[in-house]
């Protein structure tokens, strides 16, 4: 794969995720419990998955729309597992609507509403510890929807919660057809969306965090920046 080199431009959005006021930019779908500990946002489900199954999970959307050619960075630390963490990005209605358009069906955190519903989006699963097979062989998965298409996969370097000693710096690059995900500057996966399968390349839209219960995790310092391409290496 040809690997672009980028220069970070202007910061388009920054949120410390450090206090309740910082959540005014966000919209929850599903029963999410939000706390602030040590100037960080700690997220979990209000519902017990043993009672509510797959309806115990949730999505927390940032209300802002973002362009193409961006990097998305955030600090992450898993606190309790099992569970799963995901980032949606470039999310729009299938006909270009805002994802909050009243004409779209209501969503409340149930995964099929997002991967095979009325929206198009990329979704990156970067901490997959929900099911026994995910814990036995840990990967990060990139999918494109609508349609739940697995388009890229890479080894997950994050340890299980009992071995976590620090927070991790996560970074997602979306520059036209090129998508790259890294953890602590280690590239985990890359993919080129040629727009020739699974629908046209996705560009602008919203981003959102998703967790599967009963996972509990910490988030801090969400930053979205413009990207300028410098060169292409092979």
UniProtKB/TrEMBL annotation:
It holds the Pfam family DUF1961. Gene3D superfamilies: 2.60.120.200. InterPro entries: ConA-like_dom_sf, DUF1961. This is DUF1961 family protein. It comes from Amphibacillus marinus.
